[in-house]
Every structure is written in C-alpha cells, then in structure tokens.
Queue: 2 jobs
Job 1
Amino acid sequence: MAEQRLAFDLHCHSNFSDGLPSIPAMEEWCRKNRAGLAITDHNEIRGSVLMAERDNVPNLPAIEVGTTEGLEFLVYFPTVSQLEEYYRRAVEPHLYSRFMVKSRVRCLECLDVARELGAFVSLAHPFAFGRKSIGKKLAAAASKDHANQVLDQVDAIEVFNAGIPGISNRYAADFYQGIEKIATLGSDAHMLSDLGNAGITMLGGSSCRGPKLFEQLRGDDFEPQAELTYSSLLRTVAVIAWKHTSFFVLSRDRYHASNRHAVPANQIG
C-alpha cells in the first residue's frame, strides 16, 4: 500500500507575531485539510514550540529571521531543542523592543549559527519589495559580493510565496533556474483562510513529525503543491499594518502579554 501524501505549508504566521490565527485554530485547519505546517513567526518561536509540544498535527519547528540588512530567512529544524538553541544564540540577543521583523543580527552571522546547528535554510521571498530583495542587492556593486555570500550559505530559495505580487514570484522562478538550490513554496499566511494557498507535498500521514519531515525537506524529497492560490494583498497588508503598529506602540513584552495566546498543552482546541 502506497504511503500517504501530506500537504505541507512551509511559511505561515500565528498570533504570536503578525498573524491572526491561534495555535488551536491552525491545528483544526490541519486536521480538516489533512495537512501539516511550519509556523515561521518573525523572530519568534513560541507558536512553533507550542504546536510541537501539543503534538496534535504534523509540524516542523521553524522561525523567520529578519536581519539588519533586510533579508529574511526561513530556518527549519528537526527538533524543538535545536530551534530553541538557535533562538537563544542567533535571534534573542539581537531583538529590538519595538520592531517585530527587523533585528540587529547580520545575515552571515545568523546563517553561520544555523549551519552549525544543522538547520535547513530557505531565503524567503527573494524578490519582494525594498531591502528584502536579494535581486536589488545583486544589482548593486556595493552589495553584490555580500549577496553572493548569502546565496552560497542558504540551502533553498522560496520560489513561490502566496502573499506577495505575482511579478515577484516570476522573478524568483526565473532566478532559480540559474542556481543549484532546493525550491520551497509557502503561503506566508497571516489569516486562517490563506493557510495552504501554497506549499509542498511530502510522504507521511497525520503521525508524521519533525525529524521525518525535516529529512525529506533537506533531501529535496518532495513535490510542489499542484494548485497555488494568491492571498488577498489588501487584507494581508491591513492585518500586518495593524499588528505591527500594535507591536510598536506596546513594545515586545506588552504586545505578547496583551495577546494572551497561552493554551494548556493538553487542550485540543
């Protein structure tokens, strides 16, 4: 009997950063859709750790790291303990109190620690706007060498992101043809309704967890999701603007206290 295929969203956000969905709501979505996901919150791991500890659905410990240069990286691990160590060493010491995405860590520093700890790293939305674009950095003489160093250090390129304009994904897909990297896809969902708009399919059923999922990711042993759907940019931008404004006004600690997202580990939701 052939092993089950598992739909898996590699890029999404919970209410621990600038997403709206709670962990129980995301778990319920996974159950209904027979899917799994990696919660890649901005410079934040509590949502990913909580989902792994509750152990209700297929999931992969992960984080989206923002850097002082503007590039962002999706960093995946097979275990929670590795993710927590990475956060302590490469993320937490560099956080700003009032900025959710940007941090003081430099690209090569966070990539060095990721490599040391055995992570799988994908360059998120490589042709997104402004400072998030590797394309702009490659085109500028002052940053070209650094951009190439970054590309040497990552394992993958996010070639489709459902939360950005189509032209950015077309640039990413064209760019990908000229390099030898693994291609990842993700919804970049900030709302429950956008989960699964993009992703991959892997081997495994509802019992599949981090180490087995990570092995397939690192080994490029997966397929792109057959149907890809763009999220509403207007709704996404509105949610992000609200969440980031709240974060700036409240500061990091008060923002997290106000969300009240802690859920008992034995609560299914």
Job 2
Amino acid sequence: MVKLRVSVGGSYTDLTVINCNDELHPIEFETQDFKGRAVVRIKDFVGITNDGSEPIHNSDYFKGHNRKFSFQVEGRFKREWDGEQVYFGTDFDHPVELPTGFDVMFKIAKYIDPIVKSVTEGEKPWILSPLVSSINILSAWRPQDANLPSPPLTPRHSSEISRHSSLNILGKLKIGHSQKNSPNSSNDHLDIHSTQIQILESLTTETFDDTGIPLGHWRQHIEEDTSISMNAKHITNTTQRRKHFQTEKARKEFVFNPSLVYGFEFFSPHIDFNTFDIRLGLSMNIRKYLKGQP
C-alpha cells in the first residue's frame, strides 16, 4: 500500500518527515529569505510519521468544515516583496502525463481563480497563481515580545524511508521576478510544498538581519485579517481580497512587510491526499500520473 509522507525542510536536500495533524508541534524552518513554521492537516490521515508511531488520523479542525486537508504556515519575510512576486501553486521536477479530463478541471479551477497561470508541457510543468489573490486565508499581526519556540521534533529524514513506500504531492509558493517561461525567477524563491515545505536560498544580497527574529506564539488557527497589512477598510473577507487583487496594479502596490508575522492557509474539499482522488466537476485519481514525484 502506498502511503503519504509529509516532509518539511530548508532545502531540497534537508527534509524531515513530520507528523500530520499535530497542531501543538508546528515544524520550524528558516533560510536566508524567510523564518517560519508550519502544520499540515490531512483528514483521515493513514500515512507515515516521523518516528514510526501511529499517525494522528484527524484533527478537531475538520469538524464543521468541508475540507480534506489544510496547509498552515506563519512567519516573517526578511526583505520586502510585492504581491506580484510571491506565487502559490504546484510544480514538478519531471514531465507529467496529464489525465483525460484535465482540461475540463483546469477550466473549473480557472473560473475559481481567473489569474492562475500554467505550463503543463515541457520538462518541468507548473501551475501557479499570485499568493495574495489565491490563498484561502491571509492574515498578519505584529510579533509578540516573547519568542516561544515549538518543542523540537526528533528528525527522521526522508532519505531513511524507502521512496516506493510513499508519494510526495507538491504545492509551491515562489518568490521572484517575472521571466519568459515562468511567473517568477528561478534564483529567488520560497517553496511551500504540501508534502515538502521548503525555502530555497535567495541569491540576493539585500536581506534583513536574521538574528533573533521573533515570531511570537504559534496560532493554532488563523482567520482572514488584513486590517494591519492592507490600508483598505472595504476589504474585510477572503472574497473581497481576491477580487481586489485581480489586477496586476493592485498586486504590485501590496508589500509583504518584514516587521509583520504573516499567516497563510490553503485548504480544499476537492483533493484526498490519502488516495490522490480529485473531485472537481469530474472525478479522477492522479497517483499514477505523478510517477512518485512531488
């Protein structure tokens, strides 16, 4: 039986398997561009844990919510980025054979998120959208004075687990400038994976001092709140924020402030990562098309 594993790390070569649904122990990570922590929730999770223990199958988070998973990240950027430079989505390291019906599903997805961009052919396909207009929940707050780190996990690196016993599913948040074949630069980017939450080092020298960047208390649950990060009183919920950032001008005017802690959450009722089934107008299983890659 193929099992899902979820890994977090500061680079592709430094990943640690984490325990899904462990909301009291977020995994912390830091690179040159970002300092943060994350929790991944998978409904009815039956995958691999970091210490071989029985998985935490569920979370109270799912009670009253029609959701199959949740990726929650909070942290601070170490330099300013505008809303047109930070993208969220999915990419692959190798070509992917698209299943029948993908075009129909993508049209539905584009109806939900009109700004989503994609390159589905070629060596490294991707589907990305600006974070500020696509993420389900965006919140920001000032860090508290006390920096209380999460209790450390006992690391269990992905390399210790047979690759054929698990599959990685990828969601990516990228930071960078636009170029011809991608909505961002390959040199400056922050990757957030559904099974690999990573931040790759930026080549820029314009960074903030990362010594002692306080994040404050971990917020077990976050709600939409842009009152501090946006000077727009008419934007009070996710729908209004997404509509506001439909234009490139609005996205470029928004700046991620390094002095604030940002919370991001992505969730959906359409994908079951235990079985890799997608239900979005049509139903299909995508496991065989991924060929074991994120």
